[in-house]
Each structure stands twice: as C-alpha cells, then as structure tokens.
Amino acid sequence: MKVIAVVGMGGVGKSTIARKIFEDHKANNVFHSHAWIPISLFNAGEPSGFRSLLRSLISRLFRDGGEKVDEDLNNMMDDQLTEIVRDYLENKKYLIVLDDMQSPISWDKIRSAFPNGLSGRNIIVTTSIHSVAELCQRNNPGGGHIQHLEPLPPDDSLSLFCHHAFGSDTCPPNLEQHSRMIVQRCGGLPLAIKSVGNLVAKKKPKSATQWARVLETLNSEMESQGHLGLVQSALTASYNNLPNHLKPCFLCFSIFPRVKASRLIRIWIAEGFVEMKRGVSLEETAKEYLDELIDRSLIQVMDKDFLGRCKSCCVNGFMHEVIKNKSKEENFAILYDIQQMERRTSHMVLDKIRRLAIQKSNPSEIGSKSSSSHLRSLILELGKPSFGGQKQPTITNLRIRVSQFKLLRVLDLEGTFIDFLPFEFTSSHILLKYLSLRNTKLVKLPQSLKKLQNLETLDLRGTFIIKIPREITKLKRLRHLFVPHPPYENLSSTKDDLFIRWFTHSDYRGVELPTGIVRLQALWDLSLVDAFDASVVKEQGELTQLRKLGIRRLTREGCTELCAVMEKMSSLISITLLSMSRNEPLLLGDLNSPPLLLERLFLAGPLEYLPVWFSSLSHLNKLVLVGSGLQDDPFTILQKLPNLVVLFLVDAYGGSILQANTGNFKKLKHLHISNSIQLRRLVVQKGAMRELESLSIWFCAELEQVPLGIGNITGLKELHLLGMPKGFIDSLRKDRVHGHPDIAHIQRVKCSFRSEGEWNNEVF
User: Fold this and answer.
1) Contacts with 665 (C-beta within 8 Å, 6 or more apart), sequence order
2) Distance from C-alpha of 252 to C-alpha of 235, rounded to nearest angstrom
3) Which residues, in sequence order, are CB contacts of 623 under 8 Å at separation 6+?
4) How confident is residue 509, by pLDDT bands cut at 50, 70 and 90?
5) For labelling, which of 107, 495, 558, 628 has a CA lying 20 to 30 Å from the CA of 662?
6) DSSP annotation string for 356-399
C-alpha cells in the first residue's frame, strides 16, 4: 500500500488535484475499487464517528463495484466493519482518497482497515496539517510521498488572473497596478484567483473608481459568489477546527498580517492567551502554540534562525481577509487604516472592541473614536514623517486618551515617530504587561513608569535612551528589558572596519543602569549594558535567574568580577561580552564552572587562548569570536562541541592552518572565517563537517586555495568569498567552469571583489 499525502493551507487546491487524479484513474479503469471519503464530515477520533466513517467507506466501495450493501451494516461494531473492508479489498488494486484529514487519530484508526502487500494499492490523503501528512507517510511499510502545495507566487498569480479576467496571460499595461492589488488580496490561492478573475470579466471595470469598487466589495463577494464562498468556507473551517486556546492567538494575525515571532509571543503572554504548564515557561508554551499554527498551514514562516526556528511569520492574504471578518464579528480586534473601509466603523463597534491597531490613520477621526473602556491592546504603527509635504500623523495629534484605557495590557508603539510620550502612566494602568517603544525617537522615560507594577516586557531597542531611570527598580515583575544598542548601522563596511566596528562602538555612550537593578529578581533578559566599573558587573551577577546577559566595555577588573559572579548564574543560555577596546583583553580563564545550559556565546576582544571551560559547553549551538587573537588552532577544541551549528571567527585566529578532523563538527551548518590574514590552509578531512550548508571566507589574503577536502562536504549549498586575491578568484572561476570535482557539487559560489574602487559580485 502506497500513501500519498497532499498538504497545504485551505483553498490552495489539495482536493482539486486529488479529485482530478481520482476521476482520471477511475475513468481509465486502472483500479478495481475506488472511494472518495470526506474525512472531515466524520469525527473519526470518537467511536461513533469512526464507525460512521467505516460504514460510509463500505457503502461507497460496494456501490462502486455494483454490489449490494449488507442491510445489517448499521448494527455492526468497529471490528466487524473493519473486517468487511479488508475482505472486500483483499486481492484488489484500489484507489481511496481520504479528503481533509484533520487529526492523526483518524489515520491511526483507519489505516488498519486497508490490506497491504500488493502493488497497485494507493491511498491519497489531503490535509492542512503537516504532522498528519508526515505520520501517514512515515507509518506505512509500503512507502509514500508528501506533496507540499504552496500558494502561487505573484507573477504566476497575475497570469492566472489575467487569463480569466482578460482572456490572456498578460495584463493590459494600464490595468496592471489594479490587477496586482486584486491578486494580492487573493493570497496566491488558485480557486480564489480564478473566481475573482471571472468576476472581473463579468463586471468589466474600466475607470479607477470602478476598479476600486471591485476591491472594496471583495469581502461581500466572498460570501455571495459560489467559488469564492467555497474558498472562504475552507479557510473558515480551518479556523473553526482550532483548539479553543489557539483561536485568540490566531486572531491576532488580523492586526499583524506580518510579525516577528518574538514580538507576537510576548503579546500573547501579556494578553493571557498562554496557559500555564507545570515545569514549562510561558515562552516555551507560546512557541509550541506558534509551531502548531505553522503545522496547520494557517501561517507561513517568512524567516528562520540558524536552528530553523521561526523568526518572523505572516498570514496568507485571503486568510487575512477571513480572520479580519471573524475578528470583527467577535469584537476581538480591528485594524484601522485610512486607506481601508475601517473608516466607516461605528462608534458602537469601537466601544466594544478589545484590541485596536492604527496604521497611518486620520488623526482627528481616530482621536474622536478611540475612547473604548474595554480596550486591552493598543498598537500604533504610524511610521516616519513623509517628505512629500503631507505630514504623517503622530501620536501627539492623534489625541489618544491612554488614561481611559484601564484594562490595557499591551501598548505597542514600535516604529512610531515620537520623541516623547504625550501622556503619563497612572495607577489605572496596573494591568499593563507589555510596553514597546522600539524604534521610536524617545530620549528618556517618564518617572510615571513606576506605576506599571505588572509590567513584564519593556522594549527600548532603537531609541536614544542612554539612562534607565531609578523608577524601573520598582517593577518587580519585569521579565524582559531590552535596552538600546550602539548605532552599528552608521558605521561603514570597508575592509578596514567591517569587523573592527565591534570595537569602535566604544566611542558611543551605552546605556547606564541605575543602582538597585538587583531588585528585579524576575528579570530574564538584560542586554546590552555598559560596565562602567566592576561594581556594575557585581550587581548584575546577583540576578541569578537571568537567561540572557550582554555587557560591553569590559575592563580587566570587570572580567575578574564577572568570572566570580557568573558561576552563580546557572540559568544563562545567551552571553554577549565585549571588551573596552581591541587592546583590552577578555580575561575569562578564571571562570571554573560556566553556565552548563549555555546555547549562544558572543565574545569580542582579545582572548589569546580558549579557556579550558570551552570544552564543557555541550549545549552551545552558536559561537561568535571577534578579535580574539588566537595563535593555536581553535578547531582543536571547538570541533568536539556536540551541538555547535554556527561558528563565526572574525579576526579571531592569527595562525596559518585550520584543520577539521574526521568525525568532528558533527552538527555544524554555517561557518564564517574572516580577517585571518596569516591563514594559508583550511583542511577538512573526510567525514568532518558533514552537515555544513554554507561557508564564508572573507579577507584571508594568504589563503592559497579553496579548503582541502571541500569536495567531501556533499551537502554544501553556498560558498561565499569576499575580498580575496585576484589570482585566487581567477583560479576558482576556471575550476568552476571545468567542473572541478572539489567544487562542482556546490549549488552557489559567490565572489565579491573590488575592481576600480567598487565592489562587484559574481556568481558562478
């Protein structure tokens, strides 16, 4: 028995493809028996539902074969019904489609009804849940295949739309902009694109006003038009099938069509959407929620971190329309934009709404309507002032009366162009848990911050705040404190300072913490702060519950103090340490017992040698060394770290040879080596770095050739060389053209080099 699982979001065309295969094979008499079972109509996880499913399967098989169904079928139990299916299909070739399977329990139960052994026995499963597809394929001795269906890319979507709207695969030039706007709303779903294309063909809009009307009425057409209604029904069913605890989490995408995962997770927690589990942090549970929404094909991953975890995600355009409507129905949230029809929302609806997101809206309009006493979340994304003469609205002229929002849990001003807060916090804001001022122009925090006694997240990254007020020490529940970093992005990226810039930031004043920070015993994240003297380091060392710590401008005395206190900080999983300057060493050799759970380590400053405790970092998955000045081959120690995935060596090694030995660097996927000006040879023995996917070598002028043994790294996808000698590049280009076995397997070779004063990129 072979199982083919077709997986993708609702409306992407899974059932359409399965139906075409089913009908074609049925017409050609390839199989003895055929049956199409809409699994979602039966609650197969329950005994009665599974029994009904088996009865339906038997009835369809018997009718397909022209045989009479046993009249006593309704009185039979599961074992009897299963036996009937097995007996009937024995010695037969069959094609059975199990459409819209939503639970792994359904597969575990039904698979036992199908006889195995002969060729020509095929089951097609359609599902929107990736884990169900994997289960169907994995737990099947006859083998199988998973077919992932993704929404169409923009250009293919436009071609499909034009074919149905204009009878051509190309769009009339004067209508392309309007067509792309309509296609974007369809989210790459073929059935939706076809339906809207047919709708446009009937209405034949000509003027800009008529095209705007088509966009405006798309939501109502979703309900009234047949095929569009089918797409909406499929997506609505995906929402309805969610467990109750995931529904409010998913509805947040009505105001965040695209969002960073970390931001979303903290908002979920602040809202109270994440259930407490014994022995598991709220953050870990929230990540499980996010993974389940991804698994169900409800949201798409836009960007991943080096471990393959979601960094940012989005919701499909058509699905966004569906959940916006659902969100309004339930008074969950509203996205307010002057360019959309939210302007017509009544006072009555706004009075009931619990979450409000404002994007570039009309100041006077929002100012008069945003007086809801039920508001739990307020998210402003007003952007920067425009340079075209029309002034962008700011929080000042929006007249947002924050003092009235007594139930407010989330206040998110990320990216809003403000240089001060035009309101004060009061005791009525006792429920506020999440405050983001990220990427604003704020220069200081108000003293009224101390009123936020339940605040858990304070995000100040990207602001101009250089001193944290003493009042923050009163926020006993503060869990995440993100302070501004130096403006690295303002530094140039020439050969001379591309990586030295990690030290030139010492010219910038960092963030100064107040005395008494030790009172914040709930704090998890504290990064990146200045060590003005050793006493600052000592006080931070009393925060033994910290998971993320970042300190810059470390001196010898600060390092000594840090080694003494870090042994008590057993919960740390991420450490970032930067020395005062390129000449100030990071003296970390006195650390006897490093945090054993450490996963990420960033060290910028002279080390001279790798401390002995490096070999005990069994959980470390990312290591960045900058300006270390190592003379002994660091691979000797680092290659034995069992979970290392990412390794950056930036001006870190002054020797001539780096060698990875057989069987080592077992999980390394990304390796970057730069500014090793004495490096002549990089050797990768057979069996080393088997998982390596990307290799970057920058500004290593003495390197004689591509790494010896690179041909053994069969999974290498990209080799990036920057600032290498011309002779090196010419030789590599020649080898690439002639298919040299050492580099022929690499999917992409990119060389960046200077020519006549300009940087050029060449991809072989």
Assistant:
1) 635, 638, 639, 644, 688, 689, 692
2) 16
3) 600, 601, 602, 638, 641, 644, 646, 647, 648
4) low
5) 628
6) EEEES--HHHHHHH---TT--EEEE---PPPSSSSPPP-HHHHT
CA gap 445, 404 in Å, rounded? 21
Domain span at 295: 242-329
Q: 195: which 2 tokens? A: 């339906």
pLDDT band, residue 593 (cuts 50/70/90)? confident
* Total domains present in the chain: 6
Asked if 754 contacts 741 with a C-beta cutoff of 8 angstroms, the reply is no
Across the range 468-482, mean pLDDT stands at: 94
Q: Which long-range contacts (CB under 8 A, 24 or more apart) does 633-639 make?
A: 633/657, 633/658, 633/659, 634/610, 634/658, 635/659, 635/660, 635/661, 635/664, 635/665, 637/610, 638/610, 638/614, 638/665, 639/664, 639/665, 639/688
Strands 355-359 and 310-314: unpaired
Phi, psi for 124 (deg, rounded to 5): -110, 125
Q: How many CB atoms lie within 10 A of CB 507?
A: 7
Q: What's 68's domain CATH number?
A: 3.40.50.300
Q: How far is CA 263 from the centre of its chain?
A: 11
For residue 502, is pLDDT > 50? no
Whether 7 and 144 map to the same domain: the answer is yes
Q: Structure pTM?
A: 0.86
Write out the two tokens for 21: 């295969």
Residues 189 and 229 reside in one and the same domain: yes
Coil, helix or strand for 653? strand
The answer to whether residues 49 and 81 belong to one domain is yes
Q: What is the CATH number of the domain that holds 271?
A: 1.10.10.10
∠ Cα 280 283 289 (to 5°): 90
Stretch 3-8: mean pLDDT, rounded? 94
CA dihedral 703, 704, 710, 715 (to 10 degrees): 50
What one-character-per-residue DSSP string does 528-546 give?
EEE--SHHHHHHHTT-TT-
pLDDT at 218: 66
The C-alpha angle 121, 122, 128, rounded to 5 degrees, equals: 160
Residue 318's H or E segment, with its range, is helix 317-329
Task: Please give the residue that has the higher pLDDT: either 760 or 502.
Answer: 760
pLDDT band at 260 (very low <50, low <70, confident <90, very high): very high
135 & 38 share domain: yes
Average pLDDT over the chain reads: 85
Q: Which of 192, 209, 233 is the last residue of a domain?
A: 233
Tell me the mean pLDDT in the region 241-266: 94
Q: Which helix (H) or strand (E) covers residue 339, if one does?
A: none
* Pairing label, strands 300-304, 310-314: antiparallel
Model confidence pLDDT, tens digit, residues 270-328:
999 999 999 899 999 999 999 999 999 999 999 999 888 999 999 988 888 889 889 98
Reported confidence tier of residue 393, pLDDT bands at 50, 70, 90:
very low
Within a domain: residue 20? yes
